[in-house]
Amino acid sequence: MDQTCRLDIAVLCKPILAIVSVVYRPVTVDELVSFVDIPAGASNDESLAEIIGLSVKDFLLVEAAPKTFPSGIDDVHYSIFSRSLRVVSWKLKCNIYGLGAPGFPIDQVTPPDPDPLAAGQYSCVYWIHHLCDYNPSKKVDNDFQDDGLIDAFRR
Fold first, then answer.
1. Which superkingdom does the taxonomy of this entry point to (predicted)?
2. Is the dihedral of CA 123, 128, 134, 138 positive or negative?
3. CB 92 within 8 A of CB 123
4. What span, in angstroms and rounded, lies between the C-alpha atoms of 107 and 45?
5. What are the CA-CA distances from residue 8 to residues 37, 40, 69, 77, 126 (Å)?
6. What is the largest CA-CA distance in the chain?
7. Measured between alpha carbons, how far is 74 from 43 in angstroms, rounded to an integer?
8. pLDDT tens for residues 33-74?
9. Residue in 6, 5, 11 with CA at minimum distance from that of residue 49
10. What is the predicted pLDDT for the residue at 43?
11. Per-residue pLDDT tens over the stretch 68-117
12. What pTM value is reported for the model?
């Protein structure tokens, strides 16, 4: 996988980004592969999806970073972190699915439709990762102080 991803990233990523930018709906890996040349040795759907995902991510983080992150990647991490805490603070509540008793088996839970957690699933899991990847020394922010965003969420 490492050798495949070390190919000239731009050669693989530019066509992928171009295609996903103009398709009229999200496409499957199989559909995407039919539109671009994928390196030899990447045979199954899982490895293709990983190559595509890693290659596009590498391209955006390395080759296109000045255009992708004009204010720096720290600002994007901070934005995701702060918005995530706002989302989970607003969305989460005790017994949000209305389960009958504590300890209800997770495999028997059917989320309601619409799922009140749908928009916040990523935020619930990854807000702390974005906080860790953010470099707060570049910016003084009240979110890190008593009565700030983190303290309010924790309480």
1. Eukaryota
2. positive
3. no
4. 28
5. 13, 14, 21, 27, 30
6. 55
7. 36
8. 778 776 665 555 666 677 777 777 877 887 788 888 888 888
9. 5
10. 55
11. 888 888 888 888 888 888 888 888 888 888 887 778 888 888 888 888 88
12. 0.66
C-alpha span between 63 and 5 (Å, rounded): 14
In the chain, the amino acid numbered 5 is C
Tell me the three state secondary structure of residue 29.
helix
CA 123 to CA 137: how far, in whole Å?
Answer: 23
The owner of tokens 């995407």 is 32
Structure token digits, residue 28 = 């499957």
CA-CA distance, 25 to 15, in Å (whole number)? 17
The two three-digit tokens of residue 138, written as one number: 């570049």
Alpha-carbon distance values, 1 to 7, 8, 34, 154 (Å): 10, 14, 21, 40
